[in-house]
Amino acid sequence: MAPYAYTLLRSQLFVSIPVPTESFTGQTVIVTGSNTGLGLEAARHLLNLDAAKVILAVRTVSKGETAAQDLITSCYVPSTRVEVWQLDMSSRDSVKAFAKRASGLQRLDAAILNAGVLSSKWSTIDGVEHHVAVNVIGTVLLELLLLPTLRRSAQRTASKGRIAIIGSDLMYTADPTILGTDGKILDKLNTRDAIPIGAYYALSKLLVFYAHRYIASSLSPLSPEQSSVVLTLATPGACTSEIFRDEMPLAQKVFMSVMLKLMARTTEVGGRTLVHAVSPSMGTEEHGKFLMDCEVATDGYGVESEIGQKMEKHWNEELFAHLESIAPGCTKL
């Protein structure tokens, strides 16, 4: 924890996040979780960088439409440059329907998979613990289902597509030994009280990075023969964000409020990191990597340690078999 505390303090207090300047002229970009917070600010940056179309993927369409009007007004762009599509990351059917709709786009250059949950309460979705269901299974499923569309678009435009999952540097604090079991990791994750509820968010960010690394290295390596889509996973750092909107114990709420006031980046600054992760210049150096402060960062103990590598292999075997059962053929890229 001590090394992470140093990393966190250095990042939050001494690193200046650059304003994105790379042009997105002519490009279409999807941003999930974009009716508020980091996703909304990322969409604003993209429009200011001349993106031809930004698709706001939101759970509640009415809230997305309000956000779209905000963007249209503040960025002085025509309404044709902002679209609102429904997407519920907790619903497998919604994820599949969204990806199918996206497959009809004439052009799709990048996707920022930003939607996620953080909660101090236990709940499940279709029998799956909800951090795992949304932050891992829903996110990885969407990544897999969008990849073919991004590949086709990259071929047509002779450019690189980009997908960025928005993770968290809290994955550095996740203890991979917690995942140890004689059975399935997913079964353990879905068993109430088998793992402390406070550990789930950081664990979910480690688990999604495990999957993202596997896709980048094995299912969709960056090469002219296989794929021209760069896959990154980025942390925005600690930001003022509605991800903390869930109810929590008073002491925890006071602590989070004080810490955020002392160290948190604004949503606008956090949004810069999301845009950086799908910048047109992303390439081999960033493919499959973890980005922090707009730079390639260390993968951390949960990935680099012997136990981390063991859990990564075990988890990916389970997860991708599970995803195949949800959407047959999705892992056959």
TrEMBL record:
GO molecular function: oxidoreductase activity
Alphabetical list of InterPro entries matching this protein: NAD(P)-bd_dom_sf, SDR_fam
Transmembrane parts of this sequence: none
Keyword Glycoprotein: no
Pfam families linked to this entry: adh_short
SUPFAM superfamilies the UniProt entry points to: NAD(P)-binding Rossmann-fold domains
Alphabetic keyword roster: Oxidoreductase
Entry-linked PANTHER family: PHOSPHATIDYLINOSITOL-GLYCAN BIOSYNTHESIS CLASS F PROTEIN, PHOSPHATIDYLINOSITOL-GLYCAN BIOSYNTHESIS CLASS F PROTEIN-RELATED
Name the UniProt record assigns to this protein: Ketoreductase (KR) domain-containing protein
